[in-house]
Design a protein that fits this description.
Length: about 400
């Protein structure tokens, strides 16, 4: 007997109804927002994540599943979707086909974190990447899309934390001010952060160990240039106009390196320590830094297990079979099987017994499945070529010839 690996999960049929509902809702809303699906591979060159997610991030430094394949290449199971999507975007030169793309994915991600409720080593993300526009309305569209999905799922109480991380221009001044502030604190910081002080001081603000010692650090929001300020103002005004519950939070830095300007995180209070149900932001310089043209973009990813946790024990109705064949003996079984296949071809959800139950037990099974009708074939019925159709709701029975069209007519 083997167990599954810590931090991985099986999704058994009882739970997969909820997953199916979640994915269906996501796809419906993606359609409304005119977002098209992209599927990307499970593993990529390790270097891709160093270049995009960022080599000073916790994800790259501590959490990646990296291995060397037989060809001696270093590969990594994707810890997030944005790098793969951008890689595919550039590999297939999608920008040459159209200037503007809205893409979504539902994909497995892998991070070697300490597993706990809402945090797994293999998990699913639903993500959207909008590539080709610098408009602040795109930032708001991403947020509104998520709120729309959460509403349809019956998830209440989520709000959005929003901040701006500025652009390359204004961040240089901020970096200087931050380094000045951090200088005196260096001996108090962890080894990782002391190293980050030189390479990427902004990352220190996202350190799980040190962030609390730095609550009075200078804030990026106070250093924004005029263009970034205006971008942020439009985002905030539009969120307000759409009545989306949000909080401006100057301490929000996010755990990935590629963000510029708007960053946001969806908080669901019932999730406890793992209260971030999703997050994202703008990444206007990532595509260029990966060797592509200068194209702005923005996106988000939602943790799908966390969305399900936030849905609580909401029951999802399973589609019931319309018809269950009840038959005794080999001949009756064969006849049932032929009719059963015919019903399915005619688009009717139907089933029969395959484990040799008695007539009574077959009726009980039909009841348990919630079948609306049973079609009963015993010895007498075979002789007459006519079965008994029983309405399981009313108990009413009628004789119906063994003919798919005839049965279909009576049950519709
Ligand atoms: P992220 O904040 O690293 O962003 O992850 C997004 C969401 O994935 C989190 O808010 C959380 O709900 C879920 N998540 C992360 N780690 C785990 C885990 N170990 N177990 C379960 N759920 C988890 C990104 O991944 C960016 N790629 C988002 C983005 C797209 N930004 C721009 N475009």
């Amino acid at each position: 007997m083997y167990d599954s690996i810590r931090g991985t999960k099986d999704i058994l049929p009882e739970e997969s109804k909820k997953w199916e509902f979640l994915e269906r809702t996501i796809r419906e809303v993606a359609r409304l927002y005119n977002v098209r699906e992209i599927r990307i591979p499970t593993f990529e060159r390790t270097e891709l994540f160093y270049k995009s997610t960022g080599e000073d991030t916790d994800i790259v430094q501590k959490e990646m599943y990296t291995f060397t394949d037989k060809g001696g290449r270093s590969l990594t199971l994707k810890p997030e979707g944005t790098p793969g999507v951008v890689r595919a975007f550039l590999q297939y030169s999608l920008h040459k086909k159209r200037p503007f793309h809205k893409l979504f994915y539902i994909e497995r991600m892998f991070r070697q974190e300490r597993p706990q409720k809402g945090r797994y080593r293999e998990f699913y993300q639903f993500g959207v990447e909008i590539i080709g526009s610098a408009s602040p309305l795109v930032d708001v569209e991403l947020i509104s899309m998520v709120m729309n999905i959460l509403e349809r799922l019956g998830i209440k109480g989520t709000y959005v934390r929003v901040n701006s991380l500025g652009c390359d221009k204004c961040r240089a001044d901020y970096r200087k001010a931050l380094k000045e502030y951090l200088k005196g604190k260096l001996p108090l910081l962890c080894e990782n952060c002391r190293r980050r002080y030189e390479t990427n001081p902004l990352r220190i603000l996202d350190c799980k160990v040190d962030a609390e010692k730095l609550t009075d650090a200078p804030r990026m929001i106070d250093f924004l240039c005029d263009e970034c300020k205006e971008h942020h103002r439009i985002v905030i005004d539009t969120l307000r106009y759409l009545n989306i519950p949000f909080k401006e939070d100057p301490t929000l830095v996010r755990g990935l390196d590629y963000y510029t300007r708007t960053v946001f995180e969806f908080i669901h209070p019932s999730l406890g320590a793992q209260d971030s149900i999703g997050g994202g932001g703008r990444y206007d310089t990532l595509i260029k830094s990966m060797g592509g043209p200068d194209i702005p973009a923005a996106g988000f990813a939602m943790g799908m297990e966390r969305m399900l946790l936030a849905m609580g024990d909401r029951e999802i109705e399973e589609e019931r079979p319309v018809l269950f064949f009840v038959a005794l003996g080999d001949d009756a079984k064969r006849l049932s099987f032929n009719l059963l296949e015919g019903m399915r071809k005619a688009g009717v959800k139907a089933d029969m017994d395959y484990i040799g139950r008695s007539m009574k037990a077959q009726m009980r099974e039909a009841n348990r499945l919630g079948a609306m009708f049973t079609y009963i074939i015993g010895e007498d019925e075979i002789k007459k070529g006519i079965g008994i159709l029983k309405n399981m709701g009313t108990g009413e029975q009628m004789n119906v010839p063994m003919d798919v069209e005839e049965i279909k007519r009576r049950i519709s």
